[in-house]
Write a structure and sequence with these properties.
The chain is of the alpha+beta class. The chain is 23% helix and 30% strand. It has a single domain, classed as VC0467-like.
């Protein structure tokens, strides 16, 4: 790799927004990258809760008091999910050790109803974050995002949105520990 060249992100990586990103869709965001290729990229913001509960969107799952997150600004009329644990759903895509994206939704509903799948191991998202051909690499070169190669586990889902952004940076060490403590508005410091 040449000096100044950005390492290409991979599915399963976390993209952490730089502290002063002003795009309201991505302020202090952590995006789980689900797909990255030369044609474009697809990810889900994992730390931006919506005002909706799952039962308001999927009648069959009304028995779950499950928060739904805003996956990104694109197609917010679509529902996506990731789950942790063993591979349980046909069509799921592996994003790393025990982390899966999508899969057969009817099977998901059935496994949740029968207790075969732990609701705490799943996160649901409205919409997604998308980048066209070469766009994500340009944003990485512009230092809009910090790539974090961290395993996601149930603890990741227990942090508050602000804690997740901050803790991931702190755990990366070095200059990232300093960035983790930047105030949202430096003028107020």
């Amino acid at each position: 790799m040449k000096e100044g060249e950005i390492k290409s992100p991979e599915a399963g990586d976390l993209l952490i927004s730089e502290p002063f990103l002003q795009d309201e869709n991505f302020v202090r965001s952590v995006v789980l990258l689900c797909e990255h290729s030369t044609e474009g990229s697809f990810g889900l913001v994992i730390n931006k809760p919506s005002i909706l509960k799952l039962g308001e969107l999927v009648e069959e799952l009304a028995f779950l008091e499950k928060e739904v997150f805003v996956g990104g600004p694109v197609e917010q009329n679509t529902l996506h999910f990731v789950y942790m644990g063993d591979h349980q759903l046909e069509g799921s895509v592996s994003l790393g050790k025990h982390l899966w994206w999508g899969g057969d939704f009817d099977s998901l509903v059935e496994k949740l109803k029968t207790g075969q799948l732990n609701p705490d191991s799943i996160r649901f998202f409205l919409g997604y974050s998308g980048w066209g051909e070469g766009q994500l690499l340009e944003e990485l070169q512009g230092k809009t995002w910090i790539i974090c190669r961290s395993e996601i586990d149930l603890l990741t889902f227990e942090y508050t949105p602000e804690e997740l952004w901050r803790n991931l940076l702190k755990n990366m060490g070095g200059e990232f520990q300093v960035i983790a403590n930047y105030p949202l508005d430096p003028r107020l410091n």
